[in-house]
Amino acid sequence: MKLALLGSGRMGREVERLAHAGDHEIVVSLDSQTNPGGDALRDAIADADVVVDFTRPEAALRNIEDIARAGLPMVVGTTGWYDEIDKVREIVRAQGTGLVWAANFSIGAQALLRLVEHAAKFLDRFEEYDPYVVEHHHRGKRDTPSGTGLRLAEKIIASMSRKDQSLAGNPDGRIPPRAVHVASVRAGEAFGQHKVGFDAAAESIELTHTARSREGFARGALYAAQWIRQRTGVF
By three-state DSSP, how is residue 175 classified? Predict the structure, then answer.
């Protein structure tokens, strides 16, 4: 593929490394300082097959609009913009292009999301099993809780009739019985660990995904870039 990369942080550099290793061509790589936006950005990415975005939440919507107007499919690994998802769907539909987004592009993390969904549906009938989410990332991570932690809570809520809200951070006193607690740890250099538990008096069930490097996220993003090339819509 011919790829345009937006974002030169840790994830952007890892995507670029694996892209070169996989014989893909990087036609342009831009960070927040060198991304001109508007017509200039559309000109810069014109020769790409797919655009991969790992930038910042405040830049995501503008980038999506510019890429869609260029008629190019895109992979968006930036988090923190999801309250704009309806607007993004309309932009992508109007331009007839494609976008695939994820809070976590790791294949293992995506498997965890599906496993949690099945477990929550099965355990919904057994009220003694109380679900929770714990996520651990490196000290420098910008968002808390992680996008993946919130997605895991959303899967639980969608799959359990007795849960209808998530509660992040340290609560002041007891949490509501219908809430799923999402706890965050920021320490050290952890690439990312997400644990979902279902705790009961007699036993506890835990499903855990641990990232050993950023390579898994980057491989998933490149897989998504290949997949979205011939598709339209938001996935």
Answer: coil
Tokens of 55: 């930038």
Distance between CA atoms of 181 and 178, rounded to whole angstroms? 10
Predicted TM-score (pTM) of this structure: 0.84
Report the distance separating Cα 202 and Cα 225, nearest Å.
45
* Residues across the chain: 235
* Long-range contacts at 185-190 (CB < 8 A, ≥ 24 apart): 185/134, 185/135, 185/136, 185/137, 186/136, 186/137, 186/138, 186/139, 186/141, 186/144, 187/136, 187/138, 187/139, 188/138, 188/139, 189/138, 189/139, 190/136, 190/137, 190/138
Residues designated catalytic:
137, 141
Q: Per-residue pLDDT tens for 10-43?
A: 899 999 999 999 999 999 999 877 888 898 999 9
